[in-house]
Amino acid sequence: MDLEELRTLLARHARPDAATPVDGVLVSKVDRSDAPEPATTGTVLAVIAQGTKRLAVGDRVLEYGAGQYLVASVDLPVTGQFLRVGPDRPALGFGLVLEPSDIAELLLLAGPGDVPRAGGSAASALAVCDAPDELLDAVVRLLRLLDRPRDRAVLAPLIKREILWRVMTGEQGGTVRQLGLADSGLSHVARAVAWIRSHYAEPFRVEDLARRCGMSQSAFYRNFQAVTAMSPLRFQKQIRLQEARLLLATRPGDITGVAHHVGYDSPSQFSREYRRQFGTPPSRDAARLRLDAPGAPAPGAPAPGAPAPVVSSHQVDVAAVRRGNVSGDRYGRHT
Predict the structure, then answer these.
(1) How would residue 121 be classed by pLDDT, with cut points 50, 70 and 90?
(2) How many other CB atoms are found less than 10 A from the CB of residue 170?
(3) Average pLDDT of the residues in 3-29
(4) Is residue 335 within 8 Å of 70, Cβ to Cβ?
(5) H-type alpha helices, the chain
(6) Which pTM was predicted?
(7) How many C-beta atoms surround the C-beta of residue 18 within 10 A?
(8) What is the spatial distance between Cα 312 and Cα 187, in angstroms, rounded to a whole number?
């Protein structure tokens, strides 16, 4: 399918926060290729119409471009970067937040044999493949409704369901369908991920978390590794460091306090792991974040009070996902 109309619609409706009048639908435009930035994916379908995105999660690296889509079925910490984009050729993308309740409803409506059988083990939470014409056509029809307010309230929910169905029955459908199954391996891991996010500063034992999720320790560890591409403890460390970076944007002079807040007893260990993750010590990164913040004063100018946290071109997606209305990957943006 020709992507020209999709590109035109995305370019016309892109906003800095990626939000649209249709709940859960995002439109993204990025015109510069920044250094890799940490973020979280959200649970999202992200379709690229122009540009290329590279994501690293754990030991895996995914790259997807025009005419392809990414599915993120668990909210994972990732590092993302746009490649080969610029003001004359920005990255353009569409995103749809994946809600487990919507997936479960479609699974209940489907007849016997309408969807493939689920596999026995949890699939990776991130997957990329080519977008079929049927999916791209539905995305274009949904975006046309942004110019038709009278039709939007009635038709947008129907087309969103169609898009979801196309993905559920497509090449990466197994990953998406597990979101709607309360007892799937992915759902168990998603519960563990949510618990770690809410309690990231607390120590935990893997066997206790496995018991909380209703799985044996070996099955839990195997499924967690398959879905997130990292161990539970490594996942917790990624979340701690990302939360620390957000805090340092507003508390640049309190490295020790931030370290303790996110669960580190040793500030020196925190500094080592922070530098390993972000490539620079926390004090230096905090100074850069402060200078890069919107409305930040020029060097030497008086500071007008506490600056707002920095939101990078990738992290816009994260903030929007947590508000519940946009994708976590910037091509849904989020991811």
Answers:
(1) low
(2) 18
(3) 95
(4) yes
(5) 4-13, 100-109, 133-144, 149-168, 173-179, 185-198, 206-212, 217-228, 232-248, 255-261, 267-278, 282-292, 315-323
(6) 0.74
(7) 30
(8) 30
